[in-house]
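Structure request: 3-hydroxyacyl-CoA dehydrogenase, Paraburkholderia silvatlantica.
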Amino acid sequence: MSNALVRDGVESTIAPVRVCASLEDALDGVDYVQESAPERLEIKRDLYRRIDTLAARDVVLASSTSGLPASSFTDHLANRARCLVVHPINPPHLIPLVELVPAPWTDDGVVERAAALMVRAGQAPIRLSREINGFVVNRLQGALLGEAFRLVEDGVCSVADIDRAIADGLGLRWFFMGPFETIDLNAQHGIAEYCRNLGPMYYGLAKEQADAREWGPDLVAEVERQCRQVTAAENLPARRAWRDRCLAALADVKQRVLGAQSSTV
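Returned structure:
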């Protein structure tokens, strides 16, 4: 792709964006709000009180929070039924997934409107039926991270080898299909057969992994030491830029490959 095409694409994308000097100005005439204030409850509660007063009653109020349930900062609002969490995944300009998490009082129509908007924007929304600590993505990631830290702490494997186990192993499968479809395809007759054959093994692993451990300072220091051997601290910004380029290229390839394959399945 030429530099001119890239430049034109960026310019057309940012053309509608405007910077507002006040909250009143930012909320004027809008249909949807995506709030990304700091992850501090007192800030969000005050901000939503102001937004709820200023925004028209039919405006959807969505939060980008990574872990705070909407019920914790919208319970005091007169129009709280239009509030929910719409949690993007970092980096959000490259990862399409968003988690839609309603509060107990969120109107179903609000969730529908938010989901439809995300689809139109090219995102991939998933819907939770209720609030849960960590939502879905962080719970899945947390389970994997918990085991990864345990393996390092117990001296079973290095940080680099664990990263390789995902990047060159599980991650290649999970790049284009989820864990349920993965095991469904890993047994000749599907997921029920897989569970019969390997369910007892996973149950045994789950009992071993049930000892939740804090990531203590000594463990974190060791993981940090190993990570800095791979990427020096001063090179982290460049490494993030490399990550974003890889994600953009992989997302493009994924779209083209899956689009071509869908016509043959």
